[in-house]
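Let us work through a complete example step by step.
Step 1: write down the sequence.
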Amino acid sequence: MMSMKCSIVVWIRTVLSVQLLFLSLITTALPPSSLRDQQQQQSHNQQPLSLQLQTNHHTNHRSLEEIDGITACKSCKTSLGQKCVGRTITDENCDNCSTGQTFWPCHLVKECWCWDTSLPRDPGDADDKNRACSGCGRGGDTEVCASNQNSLIPVGDEECAKCMAGQSFWPCDDSDLCWCWDTTKPKKPPAPASGLGVAVELDPNVPSPCEVLTRP
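Step 2: predict the structure and record it as tokens.
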């Protein structure tokens, strides 16, 4: 009986020794964590550029570079869902910039640019205070361009939604008609402009808002 117990103990020790040896071999074969991270980064860098862009384009903020439409749209591919569009002119005028056109409007700087149609239409330039919903969508997918119900001119949400697609004419050319609403927050449209700012430009002696709205 005693010899059987000894045999069992010896067998258990042998099994444990083999397991420890096996674990040490695995640890030795694996590269250090820093080396693994470097290998993963190299593997990512070796991926096709289109795949890298597909991975990163939701987190990288785009910017409209100081380049003309010839350069901006030369690699624009409709097969990849890209389209050469205009900032202040109609998209049809920029179509041919992607096929080698070099005259107007393709030679203009910061006019025609390549839009990835899977993303919000945002060339990345500075917000334009005179255009409704300028920059809307940069804060996240919950931002939409909605009609301003406080405006004296009624506009539907469907009309204001076009401003986020790049429309530059009415109602998008009036910042009082549409506004950028974060749908995670209460829908409280801003008050329309009083017009006093324009009046001051026309007549420096025009009364200030406090003088107009406050009784003596």
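Step 3: interpret the result. Strands lie at 82-86, 112-116, 143-147, 178-182.
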